[in-house]
Amino acid sequence: MFNKIINIEIKPSTKILVVSDIHLQLPVTQELGMIQKSLAERIDILGESSDAILVLNGDVIELWEQHGHSVGDILKGFPVLSESIASFAKKNGHSVVYTVGNHDDTLALSESDRKIIEKKWSAKVCRTLEFKIRKKIIRIEHGHESDSFNATSDNANPKGKKLVQNVLPILTKTMPSLFKGIGDVVNRSLLPSFVLSNLVYKMIAPICAPIIIAVSVLISLATQDSRYWKAAIIVLVLLWVVLMISDAVIKLIAGFVLGGKSAYLRKVDTYHNSEKFDVIIYGHTHQGAIEKRKGYIYANDGCNDIVALPRIGWLGLVEFNKFVQLSHISLDSGKKDFIKYHQHFIPLVE
Ligand SMILES: [Mn+2]
Q1: What percent of the chain shows pLDDT beyond 70?
Q2: Residue 170: CA atoms inside 13 Å, Cβ hemisphere, count?
Q3: Model-level pTM greater than 0.90?
Q4: DSSP state of 257
Q5: How far is the CA of 285 from the centre of ligand 1 (A)?
Q6: Cα–Cα–Cα angle for 245, 205, 250, nearest 5°?
Q7: Do residue 266 and residue 247 come from a single domain?
């Protein structure tokens, strides 16, 4: 049976680990191998406590881009993690709760898929987990319901799903140098900047600009007229100015149309007005945080996935670097300051 909300009793000694956005899929890449190992280690440490709860806070298994693999196949692909979860769950006083996300929403709908998770990981599957620590109501859910592009409760095929399943594969196939890896960009207002950045740093700067300069210099030499190469330089400088201005404009538009962190948090504020909780723990955005809001605390467990983070490159435009992000929220009900966010980034060399 699928329980939308699960309530659990917390002891003063209970320790809780909240992880999400792992997007486990096949084939198992080197990065997924690193993530699996790190998760298994964190779960093993949690298992040393006699009272402990492991919360798998959604988008744990990638079922939007499943390429024909079943839930069982994917679990089998990650034996180290599965073994770690299963042996954690075996001990008295331990439990595993799986709060479904948008990429694994199928688990809420398909009983057979859910049964595999319940059997192999001994997990209770739900949408919302709620408990009390120090009289404070803690609510844990994946968080996609506060994101109009990915909410699945009133629409089984949200815009985000269509984008991931239909549009992105075409773009990455036809223009890989511009679009490959765009799914790893965390900040939505930077999605168009990612494409522009690839255009500038992978095509214009290393290929087009040198050709234009070389040709203009050759013409100048052949004609003994320096105006050709000077004109080429002026054109390239103007092009750079136009690109800088375009980048600023598209960032503004993208922030407005696609919604950034502040728009998301306003949705969470609205949610808090209708549901009573003191702390909400989300995943989904891949942006870890613990933030005081009006009347509640917003926490996000981040992700365990590849992320593309921006930095200003040599041309003054953003460039993206890839990292493996390993993060989680830990709760220790015995402590006054009971909630903590942890993160670790491992740079990836392309
Ligand atoms: Mn999600």
Answers
A1: 99
A2: 5
A3: yes
A4: H
A5: 7
A6: 25
A7: no
